[in-house]
UniProtKB/TrEMBL annotation:
Pfam families: zf-HC2. InterPro entries: Znf_put. This is Putative zinc-finger domain-containing protein. The lineage of its organism: Bacteria, Bacillati, Actinomycetota, Actinomycetes, Kitasatosporales. Residues 55-76 are annotated as: Disordered. Residues 3-39 form the Putative zinc-finger domain.
Amino acid sequence: MLCSRIRTAVSARLDGEGLPPGVTAGRLAAHLDACAACRQWEARARHLTEHVARLREADTTPTQGGEAPRRPRRTF
């Protein structure tokens, strides 16, 4: 199976979506077992997903006054 299809499946799984047509959990696992590049890609994607989740959680944590902190204005 093509690495691009596996990476799409990994991304979908990390996003809580179903696997794309033609990709089964068994095929995904077998490919990841055999392909070091896709295993590394999955690890990096998982790390990024977890990091973004932590940032979102930190950004919505209420302050002492009970309000979420304001986002800084962006200037370009």
